[in-house]
Amino acid sequence: MTNYLEFEKPLAEIEGKAEELRAMARSSEGMDVSKEAKALDTKAAQMLKDLYKDLTPWRKCQVARHPDRPHTQDYIEELFTDYTPLAGDRNFADDMAVMGGLARLNDRPVMVIGHEKGTDTKTRIEHNFGMARPEGYRKAIRLMELASRFNVPIITLVDTPGAYPGKGAEERGQSEAIARSTEMCLKVRVPLVSVIVGEGGSGGAVAFATANRVAMLEHSIYSVISPEGCASILWKDAEKMREAAEALRLTAQDLKTLGVIDRIIPEPLGGAQRDRDATIQSVGREIDSMLAELIDLSPEKLVQDRRKRFLEMGSNGLAA
């Protein structure tokens, strides 16, 4: 069953009518509705094209949060072989919002780390909706350190509203864990590539995305704060999230112009959720391409390249 976003409701009506016609034909022998259904399909296809032709930043936020978009677990299952999950931070607990482990990508050993939101009510609660606690970031630090020690490239997949802001997380040093994870990204002596596959929220995303190369799916978002959070602070009204989304310049297109990311990965018409397999394969090709650019660089050059990239961000004046 297709989950439609708020702005897709007119499309839902047309596609629903087409499906009703086909259901009637299946239950009534001799009824031919192929012509009517085909006309509705054509109308729906054009409407889908029109809806996605020029999405506003707020609509891109909605698409980036779509529950049917591929998640980290989907990418791991489809793109990687010999995946061996590694759990725990060796200090407090295993955070299910962060998953990672050793695997192979096109027969190349890699370390893959990513946020996982879950796919239904039970798993979303289990994975805390992709909002990592300190032990999640400390797990990531441990895995990145392990990859650096054994000269294994690191791939991070970012999809989080932000780090978990709960009392327990703050008591266990949330901000320090995020800072240490960001620091480890800058220190590792192996290629590090990152893809924003859904939401890239605040420091929770930066802690994984301080990479040599950063790519974003076409309708994903990456920002210092959510539009709702920004609206609550600036206007004391979360309902002004549309204005906040415009001001934050959180789309892949804006961030490519600003030099925050390196490349944009096109999505199928209607978003990643409309063709999950095609999206996953596109991300896989982009990861392979980014690694190919880095694989022959020396450890010193990799660290230098990464640090220079972030120190020079915004120096071209575009950020103003």
Task: Give a structural overview.
- The structure is a single chain.
- The chain has 320 residues and is an alpha/beta fold.
- It is built from 14 helices and eight strands.
- The chain has helices at residues 9-27, 34-53, 57-64, 72-79, 121-126, 134-149, 167-171, 174-187, 202-209, 227-234, 241-248, 252-258, 276-294, 299-311; strands spanning 81-85, 98-105, 108-115, 154-160, 192-201, 213-217, 221-223, 263-265.
- Strands 1, 2, 3, 4, 5, 6, 7 and 8 form an eight-stranded mixed beta sheet that branches.
- The radius of gyration is 21 Å and the shape is globular.
Give start-end ranges of low-pLDDT stretches.
none
| Outline | globular
Distance between the termini: 44 Å
Q: Tally the helices: what do you get?
A: 14
Q: Which bin fits the share of residues in helices?
A: 40-55%
Query: Into which percentage range does the β-strand content fall?
Result: 15-25%
**Biggest sheet: strands, sense, closure?**
8 strands, mixed
Oligomeric nature of the chains: single chain
The beta-strand count equals 8
Mean pLDDT: 93
Structural class: alpha/beta
- The arrangement of helices and strands along the chain is HHHHEEEHHEHHEHEEHHHEHH
Evaluate the radius of gyration.
Answer: 21 Å
Task: Please sum up the structure shown.
Helices cover 50% and strands 15% of the residues.
Topology (elements, then pairings):
Elements: H1 9-27, H2 34-53, H3 57-64, H4 72-79, E1 81-85, E2 98-105, E3 108-115, H5 121-126, H6 134-149, E4 154-160, H7 167-171, H8 174-187, E5 192-201, H9 202-209, E6 213-217, E7 221-223, H10 227-234, H11 241-248, H12 252-258, E8 263-265, H13 276-294, H14 299-311
